[in-house]
Amino acid sequence: MQILIHGGQLINPGLVDGIRDIFIIDGVITQIAPSGELADIPAEAGDRTTRIINATGKIVTPGLIDMHVHLREPGFEHKETIASGCRAAVAGGFTAVCAMPNTNPVNDSPETTAFMLEKARKAGLARVYPAGAITQGLSGHTLCDYTALQAAGAVAFTDDGCPVENDALMESALKAAGQLGLTIISHSEMMDLAGSGEMNQGAVAQRLGLKGIPNAAESLMVEREIALSEKTGARMHIAHVSTAESVDVIRLAKQRGVPVTAETAPHYFTLTDSDVEKYGTRAKMNPPLRSQKDREAIRQGLADDTLDVIATDHAPHSDEEKAVDFPLAPNGITGLETALPLSLRLVADGVISMETLIAKMTRRPAEVLGVTSGLGIGKPADITIIDPDVEYEARPESFHSKSGNSPFIGWQLKGRAVATIVGGRIVHEVGSHA
Question: Domain 62-369 adopts which CATH fold?
Fold first, then answer.
């Protein structure tokens, strides 16, 4: 198939932008030019027909990349499958996702990595980049075979959901991953401090009679990770940053030249712990929603590039699992289908520019993972087309994920992906704009 994307506002971070036309043949971008100036675009060629997408008034970007998702398969298919998660991804505008390894079995072997990739291939939707485990079984005791995992397709290593508490073991992990040119992604949590906490430590937790988790449970582990990255010279990526103290120490580390990067998620720059009273278990996640001060620090960290990436930490659970008393409910919310409009609020609020937002959802995660991003001649046509002005209500029946455990249900959202193209195939489309 040939595709002509006509008249969209191209935002291609660090490269050309403006009102552009993009021509795609057999999944590859062949031309990018000012609108109306593409040369020799045939209506059809051989057995190919040209699909024209009118992107006037829309934003055209490289395909969004979510570097932190839980696809749940293998082992927890009642929550999500790779197919349903990828359907949610493309509906949210994501052409690629990095799948966390806390499945059953854990993705600590080439066989499990290969299984995930085959499931993704059969789904034929978003690209899936598996993250392998740091330690066997996420146990925190024995390092996995990183060379074998990389050969099978793993793009990073993490024990997400389980901190690697042994200092020497994490140092060894950094060195081993660094030798392969891959990144360690840290779930930064000191379990002795977090204990059996259920939400952020503070007045709201006291009022609700729930056990609190102090900011230091995260920030002190972030300090350790930075120290080990500085000692080894190996790349360290801090997942789901939620506290002001973490932002501060990451900012100072970057000023010293430490090779550390960091991400946060839309719920941390949108909600606070006071929202737990309103949304109950749909607002329970780890790390927990923090204070207003922390929320503002996260927004400032995005503004000054202390926080490199916006990721979702998409963590689906069944309705039955969430419909229990707060202490018994699992951590995590869905995020793939609400991340883009929530993130666009940062632009509307003047926190960051549109180009910076797109960079944090395309180029920056690609750099951390070492995967391809950006629109250019000869590159795969992974493209997201965004209508920044459409308004709609977030409703669980409209979600493509198997799970609707989101605090944003019922919210009025603005902006969505109206077309998602992966490898030159239109895998998601809303309405008619052709």
Answer: TIM Barrel (3.20.20)
Of the residues 108, 273, 313, 387, only one is catalytic, namely: 313
**192 carries an active-site annotation:** no
- The per-residue pLDDT for range 88-141, each reduced to its tens digit, is 999 999 999 999 999 999 999 999 999 999 999 999 999 999 999 999 999 999
Start-to-end Cα distance in the chain: 15
Mean pLDDT for 42-52 is: 68
Question: If DSSP codes are grouped into helix, strand and coil, which group holds residue 431?
Answer: coil
User: Which of 1.10.287.990, 2.30.40.10, 3.30.930.10, 3.40.50.720 would CATH assign to domain 2-60+377-429?
Assistant: 2.30.40.10
pLDDT band at 434 (very low <50, low <70, confident <90, very high): very low
Specify the DSSP element, H or E, that contains 185.
strand 183-186
| Structure letter (DSSP) for residue 324 | S
The answer to whether 307 and 289 have CB atoms below 8 angstroms apart is no
Candidates 32, 3, 5; CA nearest to 374 is 32
User: Which positions ≥6 away from 300 have C-beta within 8 Å?
Assistant: 247, 306
Tell me the domain boundaries of the chain: 2-60+377-429, 62-369
The tokens 């937002």 sit on which residue? Answer: 357
